[in-house]
Design brief:
This protein is α+β, with helices and mostly antiparallel strands. The chain has helices at 35-38, 51-54, 116-127, 134-137, 194-197, 200-206, 234-240, 242-256, 319-326, and strands spanning 14-17, 22-25, 31-33, 46-47, 63-68, 74-78, 94-97, 108-109, 147-170, 173-191, 215-216, 227-228, 263-290, 293-300, 306-308. Strand 13 and strand 14 (293-300) form a beta hairpin. It is globular and about 75 Å long. The structure holds zinc ion (2 copies).
Length: 332
């Protein structure tokens, strides 16, 4: 089992370097490319039906589950690099336990492209449009601090065969039609994080990945970055996506028939050759408490898309004040 990598120049700890597909030494700046992340090897598609027998449980490192006592989030971290705090709420009251053997390891990873500094500028730009009351937020020292984490996502490939009924209007007359429709679904994503998937705004950021750029999983890309433990299992993920997948198929049907505007589409679909990939994807996350509620802002670590919850009751101070306040954070 692989241990934490040490710097060959000075013996310091190597951590993942966002945007560079490499490991960097925190002490001397020594940099080394991670071969998996620059390879052209595609991430393997796994067969859904045999998943239980074939899924890998090897994280390639000594993994620990860390559970937060404040918000309940569970993350998987390298035992030798435990950060001791919860990236979802900033709490330091976390418990580490050895992982149960049945935690599936991912097949693929989308490495961080957005650096922490870039994440901060994206945030600063976003917050310009939101008024805030400095004295209320002053207690939230962590507001300028983003944590990098990986979030679990299952993507599904499936061949669909549908019988469909619909109608369209031609020369003021209703025409009924029925047809067969075949369509290969590719990389349909289901976010396996209960912490983030329950919020539509945050979810839109987590559906914004270019999954075709995923690389074969390597623990090196997790050096210094915890991974959220999936709280939605593979079968549950597939079972939950029916309605959304149906909308996706209707959309495809509408696009296929370019001569008519189809109305009242009704589809009866069979699914064949279901395959999946279990990916972990990068997120910069920032959470803060206000009025005893936890608010979360997330930035897609690949594309930079940002969304966040924001307290409506914040005051209506001028933008100038807000910007001045933000200026006092650690970045320049
Ligand atoms: Zn070094
Ligand atoms: Zn927490």
């Amino acid at each position: 089992m692989e241990q934490t990598k040490k710097c060959p120049s000075c013996g310091g700890t190597l951590i993942f370097n966002p945007g560079f597909d490499s490991l960097i030494c925190q002490s001397c700046g020594h940099n080394e490319i991670i071969p998996e992340l620059v390879s052209k090897t595609p991430v393997t598609e796994m067969d859904f039906l045999t998943a239980q027998n074939t899924a890998s449980h090897d994280w390639g490192m000594e993994a620990k589950i860390v559970q937060c006592k404040q918000c309940g989030a569970e993350t998987i971290q390298n035992k030798l690099q435990l950060s001791g705090l919860c990236p979802f709420c900033g709490s330091t009251t976390v418990d580490a336990a050895d992982p149960a053997q049945d935690i599936m390891a991912p097949q693929g990873i989308i490495p961080f492209k957005i650096t922490e500094k870039r994440a901060y500028y994206i945030f600063k730009d976003w917050i310009k449009d939101r008024f805030l009351a400095p004295e209320k937020l002053a207690a939230n020292a962590q507001l300028g601090k983003f944590y990098g984490i990986y979030v679990p996502v299952f993507t599904f490939d499936v061949f669909t065969y549908s019988r469909l009924n619909a109608h369209y209007v031609e020369n003021n007359r209703r025409q009924n039609m029925s047809a067969l429709f075949q369509y290969q679904v590719d990389d349909f994503p289901v976010v396996a994080s209960k912490q983030l998937a329950s919020d539509k705004l945050l979810l839109s950021v987590l559906k914004d990945y270019r999954t075709n750029e995923a690389k074969p999983y390597t623990p090196d890309a997790m050096a210094g970055f915890p991974c959220e433990h999936y709280s939605i299992g593979l079968s549950e993920a597939w079972n939950s996506c029916g309605p959304e997948l149906n909308w996706h198929l209707r959309d495809m049907v509408s696009k296929t028939d370019k001569t008519h505007v189809l109305l009242g589409i009704n589809m009866n679909t069979n699914y064949y050759n279901l395959k999946y990939k279990y990916l972990i994807v990068p997120v910069w996350i920032n959470s803060f408490f206000y009025d005893n509620r936890l608010f979360t802002i997330v930035i897609n670590g690949q594309t930079g898309k940002i969304e966040g919850q924001w307290p409506k009751s914040f005051g209506t101070f001028a933008k100038k004040t807000a910007l001045f306040f933000l200026g006092s954070f650690g970045f320049d």
